[in-house]
């Protein structure tokens, strides 16, 4: 398209707050243009929420950046983006500066990168106000304080004088939302605004977005990979695949009756906190390389319903009643194949007390020094990272360990994996106290517990072929060359890879395949306990489903015990037999996963579970939420009372006598039936 003069934005008649027509985006590459968006049409009306979903690389964020005119110079853009009737594409920097913040505003995924670190938060918001409004400096600062108060930041006047690094992640995102709504824009673009946040903070941010949209009347384009978030927020949903919209419908209709097999697969791959461990429906394969598309449906190589008709031409969006899908089989009579459920876990065949213990942790504590001084550093305090953790895992059992960031989950894992005497408390592995182990005994026992890390690429040596990576633990245990050569192909096939993949390097695999390699490496020495530290948090939901199904199958076949650490409670509900909840270094509730999720006793657990989004619009919007106030207290202060009371809804309603008990007495763990233990005076 022909660009207008650099300082001019052209106008056109439209009733939409945002209208995207025929948007194409290519990026310059060494071998020529690389397509990212291929003919996207979107319409967003004032006051409406449109959810944009799809796997990584589908083009969601590129669409949002194009709508803001923020694509890099290496991007070649065609089509039209009208924001309130004014053309964005081709506009110059001066014109875009007048448009951004006034007509259209954006909330980015990483607020720390979006905020300038050397300027106070209030000054940055005031600058956004003064850019578009004829107002004085003092009035703009007062407006910044009002906006911080609007988005729920406590003591906004003091916080306005703080720098971004002094804010928590959730508070930084609130500040970004305050900046976005400062000039009452017509459109708010939110690009994965809750991805890096805990579920409790995510609930707060979504509530703030709702408030901000209600106060401004703006339209909201919400880009997210979390279908539960989309179910609770969106009026309409557009699903993207291979740079195109492949299905669009009102949210209720799309979740109840999806038509495109890709959408069906995405919804089937999502673990739900309100169901048991049914097999998930992974979407096989990987998204296509858009440079190599030759015609036909781009999803056909991954589609279990594809036939010859799908290879002829790329289907266009078609349908009635506002529900359109790009599929020649829509609506088709063929059911989408669902994996067969596994037989009941062996751990359930016997009473839990009769199963051999694998890991027992009692009263675990770990502190870190707070040092002060330059040349001569001295200890001036302690960080109480872990301050009373209890865990119990039996053979063939999965224990889910959950809690907010900073609750001490990772520190507890490291203490367990050290196989050394803890600072305080007891750790027993396979019935043996680790404090009594000699160095040789600890080395021999180390093969019994292995770990799978969060980031599969960071945990695999990029210079080593996969076969060598998998073989490394075997060689560390002194296995012979012939035994190693025979074991590596078995392990690769066990996790769903081919034996011929042993000669490839990690960068040649997808994210899900790399995580399977990490699992194969952990299984090499036949451990009794597998520690899984956020093993699927870096994966798309479609890939995540395949890894979770694999873990369930391996647990059943090998009778493994898992310690599964995750911030995603829906995933924990899917994989775990029991769950243990941590808050600020302490275990506050433990029990069978079905019992804890159905009848949580501790106020913190209740708040966590109420914040977990459900991919069902009707249920998600009808649920009651418990929004936690503020952030957890500093772990530097060791409070002898209940450490949760400052955020506890139950504590707020107690009388003075009951409150003094919470303030001065640490709650002890007490049984509430069926192995359900809770540490709360008034649970």
From TrEMBL:
Q: Does the keyword Cell membrane apply?
A: yes
Q: Where in the cell is it found?
A: Cell membrane
Q: What is its main location?
A: membrane
Q: Which Pfam families match?
A: ABC_tran, oligo_HPY
GO terms of molecular function: ATP binding; ATP hydrolysis activity
Q: How does it sit in the membrane?
A: Peripheral membrane protein
Q: Which PANTHER family match?
A: DIPEPTIDE TRANSPORT ATP-BINDING PROTEIN DPPD, OLIGOPEPTIDE TRANSPORT ATP-BINDING PROTEIN APPD
Protein family: Belongs to the ABC transporter superfamily.
**Protein name in the entry:** ABC transporter ATP-binding protein
């Amino acid at each position: 398209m022909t660009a207008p003069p650099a300082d001019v934005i052209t106008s056109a008649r439209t009733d939409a707050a945002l209208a995207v027509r025929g948007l194409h985006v290519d990026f310059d590459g060494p071998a020529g243009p690389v397509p990212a968006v291929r003919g996207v049409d979107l319409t967003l009306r004032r006051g409406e929420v449109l959810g944009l979903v799809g796997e990584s690389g589908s083009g969601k964020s590129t669409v949002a950046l194009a709508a803001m005119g923020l694509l890099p110079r290496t991007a070649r853009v065609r089509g039209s983006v009208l924001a309130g009737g004014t053309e964005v594409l081709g506009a110059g920097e001066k014109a875009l500066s007048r448009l951004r913040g006034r007509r259209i505003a954006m909330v980015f995924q990483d607020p720390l990168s979006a905020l300038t670190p050397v300027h106070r938060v209030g000054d940055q918001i005031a600058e956004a106000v003064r850019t578009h409004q004829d107002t004085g400096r003092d009035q703009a600062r007062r407006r910044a304080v009002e906006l911080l108060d609007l988005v729920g930041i406590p003591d906004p006047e003091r916080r306005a004088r703080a720098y971004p690094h002094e804010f928590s992640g959730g508070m930084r995102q609130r500040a970004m939302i305050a900046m976005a709504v400062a000039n009452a824009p017509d459109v708010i673009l939110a690009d994965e605004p809750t991805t890096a946040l805990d579920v409790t903070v995510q609930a707060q941010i979504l509530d703030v977005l709702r408030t901000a949209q209600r106060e401004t009347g703006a339209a909201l384009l919400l880009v997210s990979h979390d279908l539960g978030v989309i179910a609770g927020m969106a009026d309409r949903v557009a699903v993207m695949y291979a740079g195109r919209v492949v299905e669009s419908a009102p949210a209720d209709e799309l979740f109840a009756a999806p038509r495109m097999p890709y959408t069906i697969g995405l919804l089937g791959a999502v673990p739900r906190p309100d169901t048991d461990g049914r097999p998930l429906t992974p979407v096989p394969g990987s998204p296509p390389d858009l440079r190599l598309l030759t015609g036909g449906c781009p999803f056909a190589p991954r589609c279990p319903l594809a036939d010859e008709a799908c290879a002829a031409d790329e289907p266009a969006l078609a349908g009635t009643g506002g529900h359109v899908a790009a599929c020649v089989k829509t609506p088709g009579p063929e059911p989408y194949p669902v994996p067969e459920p596994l037989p009941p876990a062996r751990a359930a065949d016997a009473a839990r007390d009769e199963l051999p213990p694998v890991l027992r942790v009692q009263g675990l504590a770990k502190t870190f020094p707070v040092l002060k001084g330059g040349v001569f550093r001295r200890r001036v305090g302690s960080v109480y990272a872990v301050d009373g953790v209890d865990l119990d895992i039996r053979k063939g059992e999965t224990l889910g360990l959950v809690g907010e960031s900073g609750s001490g989950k990772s520190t507890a894992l490291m203490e367990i994996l050290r196989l050394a005497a803890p600072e305080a408390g007891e750790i027993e592995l396979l019935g043996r106290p680790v404090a009594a182990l000699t160095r040789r005994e600890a080395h021999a026992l180390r093969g019994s517990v292995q770990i799978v890390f969060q980031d599969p690429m960071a945990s695999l040596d990029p210079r080593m072929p996969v076969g060598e990576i998998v073989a490394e633990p075997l060689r560390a245990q002194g296995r012979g060359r012939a035994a190693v050569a025979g074991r590596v192909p078995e392990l690769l096939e066990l996790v769903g890879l081919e034996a011929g993949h042993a000669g490839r390097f990690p960068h040649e695999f997808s994210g899900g395949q790399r995580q399977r390699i990490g699992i194969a490496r952990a299984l090499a020495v036949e451990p009794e306990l597998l520690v899984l530290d956020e093993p699927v948090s870096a994966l798309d939901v479609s890939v995540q489903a395949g890894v979770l199904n694999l873990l369930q199958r391996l647990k059943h076949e090998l009778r493994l015990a898992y310690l599964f650490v995750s911030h995603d409670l829906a995933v924990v509900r899917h994989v775990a037999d029991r769950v243990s909840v941590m808050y600020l270094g302490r275990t506050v509730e433990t029990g069978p996963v079905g019992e804890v999720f159905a009848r949580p006793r501790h106020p913190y657990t209740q708040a966590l579970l109420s914040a977990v989004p459900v991919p069902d619009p009707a249920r998600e919007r009808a649920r009651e939420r418990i929004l936690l106030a503020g952030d957890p207290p500093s772990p530097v202060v060791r409070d002898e009372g209940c450490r949760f009371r400052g955020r506890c809804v139950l504590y707020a309603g107690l009388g003075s006598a009951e409150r003094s008990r919470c303030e001065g007495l640490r709650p002890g763990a007490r049984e509430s039936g069926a192995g359900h233990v809770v540490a709360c005076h008034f649970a």
